[in-house]
Amino acid sequence: MSDLSTLKLFATQPHPCSYLEGQEATTVFVDPAADINPSLYTQLSQLGFRRSGAHLYRPQCLRCQACVSCRIPVRLFKANRSQRRCLQQNSDISLHITDNINTEEHYALYARYIESRHQSGDMYPPSLEQYTAFLTSEWGITQFIELRLAGTLIGVCVCDQLGDGLSAVYTFYEAGLEQRSLGKFAILAQIEKARSMNLDYVYLGYWIKECDKMKYKIQYRPLELLINRRWMRLN
């Protein structure tokens, strides 16, 4: 069984950064042949690794350290006025846990989301093959939280249960419901889910100060940032 001391890592060649224009990025991947278990996955998350499909990765760029891992300590989190308003506004949404999103209903929502919100991204155009590979359930710890309005699917949160928290892998939702701020609501729902499971954190991936797409993460306080291999709390 693999552990941190024996784990092999592989680095990509420098490539154009997806977040900062004009920057080059290098990504480190965990050996795809490694035997990943929930304990090892938790340790890697604590070191700043993320999951995409069956792969665990972390940015490791030579000239840039803009990508900062962040997590919400859920027991200390207090919703601000905007977040409380979001919860109240979406009080008519019901949440359901499912272990399978390989359905026409789920994929159709995902495809609409990518087509309307991410036409310039790597996931466009959407395909069923890419959807399955990207959001696959790994190592028996992935949960899918459905957001339903009067029975209609309007959002899905993909999250992994770690030893110390939930890792928010990806969220997609009905893009035509902008007034509901479903992305914000999805994070708040995962915070409450982690609390109910007596877990400590919700891992949000990477915060990049100079990237507008990532600025929303700094709105959840307190927030812990992984700086020089130490988690620092931002109140």
TrEMBL record:
One cellular component term (GO) for this entry is:
cytoplasm
**Catalytic activity line of the entry:** N-terminal L-glutamyl-[protein] + L-leucyl-tRNA(Leu) = N-terminal L-leucyl-L-glutamyl-[protein] + tRNA(Leu) + H(+); N-terminal L-aspartyl-[protein] + L-leucyl-tRNA(Leu) = N-terminal L-leucyl-L-aspartyl-[protein] + tRNA(Leu) + H(+)
> Per the database record, which ranges form the N-end rule aminoacyl transferase C-terminal domain?
105-226
Q: What is its EC number?
A: 2.3.2.29
Listed GO MF terms: arginyl-tRNA--protein transferase activity; leucyl-tRNA--protein transferase activity
Where is the protein situated, by its record's location annotation?
Answer: Cytoplasm
Pfam families for this protein: ATE_C, ATE_N
Would the keyword Acyltransferase be found if you checked this record's keyword annotation? Answer: yes
InterPro entries in the cross-refs: Acyl_CoA_acyltransferase (IPR016181), Asp_Glu_LeuTrfase (IPR017138), N-end_Aminoacyl_Trfase (IPR030700), N-end_Aminoacyl_Trfase_C (IPR007472), N-end_Aminoacyl_Trfase_N (IPR007471)
| HAMAP family, A to Z | Bpt
Provide the function of this protein: Functions in the N-end rule pathway of protein degradation where it conjugates Leu from its aminoacyl-tRNA to the N-termini of proteins containing an N-terminal aspartate or glutamate.
Q: Which PANTHER family match?
A: ARGININE-TRNA-PROTEIN TRANSFERASE 1 (PTHR21367), ARGINYL-TRNA--PROTEIN TRANSFERASE 1 (PTHR21367:SF1)
Membership in a protein family: Belongs to the R-transferase family. Bpt subfamily.
Question: What is the protein named?
Answer: Aspartate/glutamate leucyltransferase
